[in-house]
Design a protein that fits this description.
The protein is mainly α. Helices cover 42% and strands 5% of the residues. The chain is built from eight helices and six strands, in the order E-E-E-E-E-H-H-H-H-E-H-H-H-H. The chain has a two-stranded antiparallel sheet. It has a two-stranded antiparallel ribbon with strand order 3-6. Strands 4-5 form a two-stranded antiparallel sheet. The longest helix is centred in the last third of the chain and has 19 residues.
Length: 268
């Protein structure tokens, strides 16, 4: 169980039929993805990201008009909350299901079926509070752009997996939130070199954030496997993946996101 500073948590997906482990006690009757408190989303997600003090003095980088315009458009996307009453949001959620399970009919936007994808409960909208509508867009982009890698992560098909795995969909929301923090995308101007470099890529490709999301998700899973991680290690894995992604963005010979070493993970 991964805890935040206020006691919120999510519960990992058990890959063999032994149920939940809570307070070091096993309950042997569940073989499906299981739901916990959604409090880690939005509030608790910050536990996987590097924290900063408001008093920290950091430089800012000037933007070209094109970069400023692209940043503003991305910030508008980031500010959109998931709203289950909006038809576009409903259709995007159904599209995600169809991409993940093309041969299985979805019984409703609120359904126990969603746990199969790694949502915490039967209503995915409660999990989007941490990442907003853009986190759904990121998942959908991943499913459409890199369907094989998406399915490999969804079904945990690569490597020697832990008995207790991270929940796919909720981890995806976490990655969206991590990237927004890492790139400092809610600031008027980037205050880190990583953020400034990313905005250059964004000005050249409007889908740069979505593409970086796919790279980050695949990189996180690779780190998960390399560290032989289990659910207690999720926060550590996320921090490790973030540091690796920052290092790659700072490499001198990177002129586009496809040049990142970890991009190759998506094209295997």
């Amino acid at each position: 169980m991964i805890m935040d500073d206020r006691g919120g948590s999510f519960v990992a997906v058990r890959r063999i039929s032994q149920g939940l482990e809570r307070d070091n006690t096993y309950h042997s009757n569940s073989a499906e993805a299981v739901a916990g408190s959604a409090a880690w989303l939005g509030r608790g997600l910050s536990c996987v990201c590097a924290q900063r003090r408001e008093s920290d003095a950091r430089p800012s980088f000037d933007l070209t008009p094109s970069e400023e315009e692209c940043l503003q458009r991305l910030q508008i996307r980031i500010d959109i909350a998931y709203d289950s009453s909006i038809l576009e949001h409903q259709e995007a959620l159904r599209a995600l299901w169809n991409a993940a399970f093309p041969d299985e009919e979805l019984h409703g936007l609120i359904s126990e079926q969603w746990k199969e994808m790694g949502w915490q409960g039967k209503d995915p909208s409660t999990d989007f509070r941490g990442g907003g509508f853009i986190s759904l867009e990121n998942l959908l982009f991943f499913a459409r752009k890199f369907p094989k890698s998406f399915k490999d992560l969804l079904w945990k098909q690569e490597g020697n997996r832990s008995a207790w795995e991270y929940p796919f969909a909720v981890a995806g929301v976490n990655i969206t939130f991590m990237l927004i923090q890492m790139l400092d995308l809610e600031a008027v101007k980037p205050r880190t070199m990583v953020g400034a470099i990313f905005l250059k890529f964004l000005s050249e490709d409007e889908s740069a954030f979505d593409l970086l999301y796919c790279i980050a998700f695949k990189l996180m899973d690779q780190q998960w496997l390399a560290m032989r991680a289990s659910y207690m290690d999720f926060n550590t894995v996320m921090k490790t993946a973030r540091r690796q992604l920052e290092r790659e963005l700072l490499l001198e010979d990177i002129t586009r996101l496809e040049d990142l070493p970890s991009y190759s993970l998506l094209t295997r």
